[in-house]
Design goal:
Length: about 300
């Protein structure tokens, strides 16, 4: 039996549309979106949309998930309680695979990461709940760690390069290699996970579109923007200490929380030697840095 009926929750954010498009393009899935009553998002006609309350209880979610083979959660990873409710409902509804909202810039199984950022502790808490459910039911899970979203990260500043002001912050000399993935590659990985049900079950998998250093990215940006960049060289240790202290003082400071994710994803984000590195298993090829940079500069007018 294949995982054919797939439901996606959070299909309209940063990553969701890419996953939705990849599921539709695969042409083998019956795709459903769970959408909140308050949502104004619109979806293609081929997609079945089920409306749920803004604060659904388990009973409502069981009804909504009935008959589905797999669920992909693509809303903020900080919504752990809702993910746990979805997981409990998925078991009761007979869903066979749960893909939680990990998709991390950083590794949610790393002690260092868990100590620095509560977001990742929340992702781990959800995964541990899925592990517990897998031990007492037929539901399995797969978590995907992809590194910084490349195209989104270049446009949003997550990669510490500001395309418009041509300024960059470079950590520890800029020669540390880190894994990064485009939204399209992550979406393809999700499709392949569903297509390789047995090989991917109950696993934390790591993927990348490419593994780069900040200096390689800087050189590519300089080549394709035709301009020199103003670079600030920073010690990651000092930067992490400074930002962490600010976040501890004011946990609602979103900009500084993102700064913390940003630096750790760069200095501690190379997946190539991880046991769960799955590019080969999922048939993902290497993307070309210059092509991605040229596209990003074109689409941002940079
Ligand atoms: N590696 C990276 O660089 C990186 C970057 C960003 C995010 N991420 C990760 O990627 C995953 C997805 O993040 P995202 O930024 O794409 O998501 P998002 O934009 O925060 O949320 C996606 C959509 O979920 C829906 N939503 C929000 N709250 C909801 C709720 N309580 N119940 C149901 N639906 C809700 C909203 O759609 P409607 O308004 O239509 O309901 C929203 O547009 C997360 O795990 C996040 O940590 C990773």
């Amino acid at each position: 039996m294949v995982l054919r009926k797939v439901v996606i929750v959070g299909a309209n954010g940063t990553l969701g549309p890419a996953i939705l498009n990849a599921l539709i393009a695969a042409n083998t899935f019956a795709v459903t979106v769970l959408s909140r009553h308050s949502s104004t998002s619109k979806y293609p006609e081929s997609v079945n949309v089920i409306c749920i309350s803004n604060e659904p209880d388990t009973e409502e979610l069981v009804v909504a998930l009935h008959g589905q083979d797999a669920i992909i959660v693509v809303f903020a990873g900080s919504l752990g309680d809702l993910q746990i409710r979805l997981a409990d409902a998925a078991v009761l509804a007979g869903v066979r695979r749960f893909i939680p909202a990990d998709f991390g810039s950083c590794d949610s199984s790393s002690q260092r990461v868990l100590g620095l950022m509560p977001l990742y502790a929340e992702k781990k808490r959800v995964r541990e709940h899925l592990q517990d459910l897998a031990s007492i039911s037929d539901m399995t899970w797969t978590s995907l760690i992809c590194g910084h979203f490349f195209n989104y990260g270049l446009k949003s500043g997550l990669l510490q390069f500001d395309i418009h002001s041509r300024k960059a912050k470079i950590f520890d000399g800029g020669d540390i290699s880190w894994s990064t993935s485009t939204l399209e590659t992550i979406a393809l990985a999700v499709v392949r996970i569903l297509q390789k049900e047995d090989e991917t079950k109950d696993r934390l998998l790591y993927i990348q579109s490419l593994c780069i250093t900040q200096n390689e990215l800087l050189r590519s940006l300089e080549r394709h923007s035709g301009q020199g960049w103003q670079v600030e060289y920073v010690s990651s240790g000092e930067y992490i200490r400074e930002v962490k202290a600010e976040v501890d003082k004011d946990p609602s400071n979103k900009e500084r929380r993102v700064n913390l994710v940003s630096v750790v994803g760069i200095v501690d984000g190379n997946w190539q030697d991880k046991a769960g590195f799955a590019n080969l298993l999922l048939g993902l090829g290497e993307e070309n840095l210059d092509t991605l940079v040229k596209n990003a500069l074109t689409t941002t007018g940079g």
